[in-house]
């Protein structure tokens, strides 16, 4: 069995705005990570960090199709993540995040599924709030203690 985790959200902004929010770390850092070493570009490696949690992730960009797909490999253990952007209308984008190729079994896999589902759902919620309303919601910042 190949486990695929999927989360999704309609974001009421144009597909190019939503796509750009995920490739441009100056925007992404407003709703997801604290810092990135660079823009997402096919074949490039970057590092994302979450200052509050003293956490870092190495990200390898496997594929980018403008306004349609970002495919990365990241995390520990390494897994693949697809960000799939679907234009619904001029001002609506349906964004799906799929996490797969997870090299775990049993309880470790179950724990990963729960963490990844919750994490990517929070990212989508924060992206929606930021892109639609210009609010930096701090959802990622406030997800885990300590709450300082």
List the helices and strands and how they pair.
Elements: E1 5-11, H1 15-23, H2 25-28, E2 35-36, E3 45-50, E4 55-65, E5 69-74, E6 79-89, E7 92-100, H3 106-133
Antiparallel strand pairs: 1-7, 2-3, 3-4, 4-5, 5-6, 6-7
In short:
It is built from 3 helices and 7 strands, in the order E-H-H-E-E-E-E-E-E-H. With 148 residues, the protein is α+β, with helices and mostly antiparallel strands. The mean pLDDT is 96.
Question: What can you tell me about this protein's structure?
Answer:
The protein is an alpha+beta fold. The protein is 28% helix and 35% strand. The chain is built from three helices and seven strands. It has helices spanning 15-23, 25-28, 106-133; strands spanning 5-11, 35-36, 45-50, 55-65, 69-74, 79-89, 92-100. The chain has a seven-stranded antiparallel β-sheet, covered by helices on one side. A hairpin with a 4-residue loop joins strand 3 and strand 4 (55-65). The N and C termini lie far apart (41 Å).
